[in-house]
Amino acid sequence: MVENQKIIPIRIGYSNSILLINGENSVLVDTGTKNHGEIILQKIKECGLNPTDIKLIILTHTHFDHAANTHFLKEKTGAQVVVHENEKESLSNGFTKIPKGTLPFTKVTSWLGRNLVSFIGKYKSVNADVIVKNKFDLTPWNINGFILHTPGHTDGSVSVILDKKALAGDAFFNRGYNIIFPPFADSPETLLKTWQMLFDLGIKEIYPGHGPHFKIEKALPDFEKWKKKLNILT
Questions:
Q1: Distances (CA, A) of 168 to 9, 18, 29, 233
Q2: Contact predicate 55/80, CB 8 Å
C-alpha cells in the first residue's frame, strides 16, 4: 500500500462502512443502514478529508444494510459508485432480497423478510458508474489493491483486497458467539470456495461487514465445521 493509506472502520447502525484514506483518492466501502448518510459524511470530515476526496464508493453487495445511503453520499461526494455486475440491477431498483439463513433462527428471519416484510430491504435507487466482473484494479486511484469477486453471501458480493487485508463485506461475520461464518448466505457451498480462495491468496486479516476486524486464523474452525456439515471434501 502507499505510505499514507489507512483503513478506518465506521460503525453505521449494526453494519460497518470502511473509509480507505488515500488523500484526494480516498474510497468508501459500503454505506450502511438507512438515514446514516450525514454520520458518514461527518466521519469523512473528522478524518481530515473533504467529501470530494472520496472518489469511489465501492459496494461489497447491495443489501439495505450496506447500500442504503449510497444515493445520498454519491450526491454529496461526486464519487463513482462501483458494484458487481450481478448486483447492478438490484442497486438500480433500490432493493435486494434478504439472503437465505444458514442457522435455524436466521432461516426463520429470512423467510419472514422474503415473504412478509420485504419492504425493509428497500432504499433509494442508484445507477452504478463502474461495473466489476471478476477483478478490478485500483492502481489508477494510486491504491495498491484490487476488487475481487467473492460470491456466496450473494452472487455479486465483492471484497477489496489491500496487500494481505480483505475488506470482505458479509463474506465473513464477527458479532458475538464466536460465529464467523455468516448467519445469512445464499450459497454456503460457494462461500466456502470463496474462503478457500482468500486463504490461498495469503490473506491475513479480515474487515467484515459486521463486527470488528480479526486475524484469518479465527475463521479456520468454522471453515472446517462447515465443510463437514456440507460434506465437502478437500
A1: 12, 10, 10, 25
A2: yes
pLDDT of residue 33: 93
Residue 1 is assigned to a structural domain of this protein = no
Q: Specify the number of domains making up the chain.
A: 1
Q: List beta partners, residue 159.
A: 148
Rounded to a whole number of angstroms, the distance between the first and last alpha carbons of the chain is 33
The CATH number of whichever domain residue 177 belongs to comes to: 3.60.15.10
Report the C-alpha gap between 127 and 139 in whole angstroms.
24
b/e map 87-99, b = 16+ CB within 10 Å = bbebbeebbbebb
Please name which of 233, 103, 99 lies closest in space to residue 179, comparing C-alpha atoms.
103
Residue 61's pLDDT is 98
Give residue 202's pLDDT band: very low, low, confident or very high (50, 70, 90).
Answer: very high
Is residue 173, in this structure, part of any structural domain at all? Answer: yes
User: Contact 128/89 with Cβ under 8 angstroms?
Assistant: no
pLDDT tens by residue, 41-58:
999 999 999 999 999 999
Mode of pairing for the β-strands spanning 214-215 and 26-29 = unpaired
For residue 148, the enclosing domain spans: 6-229
Three-state SS at 167: strand
CA–CA dist 46, 12 (Å, integer) = 15
pTM here? 0.93
Alpha-carbon 201 to chain mean position: 18
Phi-psi label, residue 116: left if phi above 0, alpha if psi -120 to 50, beta otherwise? alpha
Write the Ramachandran bin of 191: left for phi over 0, alpha for psi from -120 to 50, otherwise beta. Answer: alpha
